[in-house]
């Protein structure tokens, strides 16, 4: 486990840009990670776990005894919404209106409010999901009309490559985040900017991320 080193690097990246490092939260990405190592991470101060797939999340959820926040960071199939949304604290991957409608329907049925970030495909990669930057504001205006759904920010995944290559992507997302924030759209509160992974989290922190999603940097490589 390398959580102490990651935290140290977050502090340094925050200080380089005059940010408060306590504003940056680590989502420990536990896909393919077993329970023992998850518990080890939790004992070193991790409080947020991120899973990619609903199925894997559902099998781990009842076995993690500590109180943690669970975030869903991978793409969510509409038919999985019902089983997952009561237990997920934040969805990072809202990327289409049909999914928003399904979340809203199930949230209303269970009398809950579901929190989600809008996933943005800033770099326009065909392999990645997410809205184009131009679609974000109209989309947020549309989905905030739905009951039971709260938009709490934006998420992106930068293209693979050198960490510096992510900087433009992250600064663009930050700009969109600020634009949305200034519009004061009812039902949309820009609280979370989820960007940066093991490879590029320091650049993300420098560009304003307050949720960073770290898998291999904490748990080592996934087989
Ligand atoms: C797997 C995954 C991560 C973590 O990736 P690492 O490079 O292992 O830190 C972050 N975000 C998403 C959406 C992922 O699927």
Could you list some keywords that capture this structure?
single chain; alpha/beta; globular; binds pyridoxal-5'-phosphate
Polypeptide structure, described:
The chain is of the alpha/beta class and 223 residues long. It is 37% helix and 19% strand. It has 9 helices and 8 strands. The protein has helices at residues 3-16, 35-43, 54-60, 81-84, 97-109, 136-143, 167-183, 201-206, 216-219; strands at 25-29, 48-51, 69-72, 90-94, 114-119, 149-155, 188-194, 211-214. Strands 7-6-5-4-3-2-1-8 form an 8-stranded parallel sheet. The longest helix is centred in the C-terminal third of the chain and has 17 residues, at 167-183. The protein is globular. The mean pLDDT is 96. Residues 29, 31, 52, 73-74, 157, 197-199, 213-217 line the site of pyridoxal-5'-phosphate.
Topology:
Blueprint: H1 3-16, E1 25-29, H2 35-43, E2 48-51, H3 54-60, E3 69-72, H4 81-84, E4 90-94, H5 97-109, E5 114-119, H6 136-143, E6 149-155, H7 167-183, E7 188-194, H8 201-206, E8 211-214, H9 216-219
Parallel strand pairs: 1-2, 1-8, 2-3, 3-4, 4-5, 5-6, 6-7
The structure holds pyridoxal-5'-phosphate (PLP).
Would you summarize the structure shown here?
The chain has 223 residues and is α/β, with parallel strands linked by helices. It is built from nine helices and eight strands.
